[in-house]
Design a protein that fits this description.
Layout: E1 2-6, E2 12-16, E3 25-29, H1 32-47, H2 68-77, H3 86-95, H4 106-118, H5 124-144, H6 166-174, H7 191-201, H8 219-231, H9 235-239, E4 246-247, E5 252-256, E6 267-271, H10 274-283, H11 303-323, H12 333-344, H13 356-363, H14 371-375, H15 380-388
Antiparallel strand pairs: 1-2, 2-3, 4-5, 5-6
Helix pairs in contact: 2-3, 8-10, 8-12
């Protein structure tokens, strides 16, 4: 992008910004026409992926030879990466061992992405996570070293670079892998599927199994299931609830959002629907008045303790769904289901109960987020039924 402005001296300054340039370029011309003509020429070249010779950065003496793994560890130590980035960054420290900054070129970036698909046979979502995590680390390093004339080649990768092309698919299959695609989570816990899961949840034993997957007296796990099913709170948000956060008189849950940014506490209120209120009114008296709502977690907010509790419960839900004959389901699908229910909920007059912005608040998404569009999985039969209503 090129822009022209007149300076206080009467001359004309051309500012050029592009992903192909490590930083903005400022040039001065005697007239506006000269500035705009040159700016148009440069824009056409940059749009074609060509950096004019006069704008290309000169080779730097002593180009940065710092190890990429060292940069990643420095970035981790700043505490700035998102919590979900840490595991990916630690993995990249191992995978990119021996790589130097001066070797991180666009050609390398393209080859790296292709290798993740064809050789490692990673899913597109996993490839995107690795690209994003490494790119954010490089951006931080470049901001910390403004004297270094170096760009971030990962920012130049085309949209959809993580998606398998026809050549990627053929190479992956030839290497014994498979052509992987993004799999949208559009499973719904409704109809026969929900009935099968509820039967397993209620402790009904299958004829081909020796015992039920959930004990008949396990009211705690059933309560956890219905809490997530009716509200869509995240698993960590559910099992860390205390009894004090269940406000039955006002029909709300006071939820501590698990997506905290640098440990800044965020809370939100989630409505309690009547079916859930009835279950909670029976369950609450069985729990300590000033304690945790569930006993799956010891109350230690250390990340290892939380991950351990999450892992155990995720495995329990996986066993439940497999026992019910729906092994394709995950606990997170219940959050998708709840989102759809919030959207489909109607009052006694047949009017929609919540607006999209209100559902964003209920689910813990920022205003204007696109997450509700990703989570809403409406069934074709439900949409068709409205035409016949």
């Amino acid at each position: 992008m090129a822009s022209v402005r007149q300076t206080p001296t009467g001359k004309w300054e051309l500012t050029i910004r592009s992903k192909l340039l490590p930083k903005r370029v400022y040039l001065t011309f005697a007239s506006e026409g000269e500035a705009r003509t040159y700016g148009d020429q440069v824009e056409r070249l940059l749009d074609a992926g060509i950096v004019p010779a006069g704008l290309a950065p000169e080779p730097q003496q002593g180009a940065p030879r710092e190890a990429v793994a060292a940069v990643l560890r420095q970035w981790i130590r700043t505490g700035q990466p998102a919590r979900t980035d840490y595991d990916v960054l630690e993995r990249l420290c191992v995978e990119l061992a021996g790589l130097r900054l001066d070797q991180v070129t666009y050609a390398w970036a393209e080859a790296w992405v292709v290798g993740m698909k064809r050789n490692a046979n990673l899913a597109p979502s996993t490839v995107r996570k690795r690209i994003g995590s490494l790119s954010r680390a490089l951006d931080w390093w470049l901001r910390s070293h403004p004297d270094v004339s170096l760009g971030n080649p990962l920012r130049l990768l085309p949209r959809g670079a993580a998606t398998y092309t026809a050549a990627d698919k053929a190479a992956a299959v030839a290497a014994g892998g498979q052509a992987k695609t993004d799999k949208p989570r559009d499973h719904r816990l409704a109809g026969d599927c929900l009935a099968a899961v509820v039967q397993a949840l209620d402790g009904v034993k299958r004829p081909d199994r020796q015992r039920p997957v959930v004990a008949p007296d396990d009211a705690e796990f059933r309560m956890l299931f219905w809490l997530i099913y009716y509200t869509g709170v995240r698993l960590r948000e559910a099992y860390t609830l205390t009894t004090a956060q269940v406000l039955l008189p006002s029909s709300t849950l006071r939820v501590r959002t698990s997506k905290q940014w640098h440990d800044n506490e965020k809370w939100r209120n989630v409505p309690i629907r009547p079916p859930l209120a009835a279950l909670l009114s029976t369950y609450l008296p069985t729990r300590p008045a000033d304690g945790l709502l569930f006993s799956y977690w010891d109350g230690d907010r250390d990340e290892r303790s939380l991950k351990k509790a999450t892992g155990r419960l995720s495995a329990r839900f996986a066993k439940l769904f497999e026992y019910a004959g729906h092994a394709e389901l995950t606990e997170h699908d219940m959050r998708h289901e709840a989102t759809c229910q919030w959207f489909e909920l109607r009052d006694s007059r047949g009017q929609w109960v919540f607006r999209e912005t209100e559902i964003d608040r209920i689910m813990g998404w920022e205003p204007g987020s696109e997450m509700s569009k990703r989570y809403a999985s409406f069934r074709a039969e439900d949409l068709s039924a409205r035409l016949l209503a």
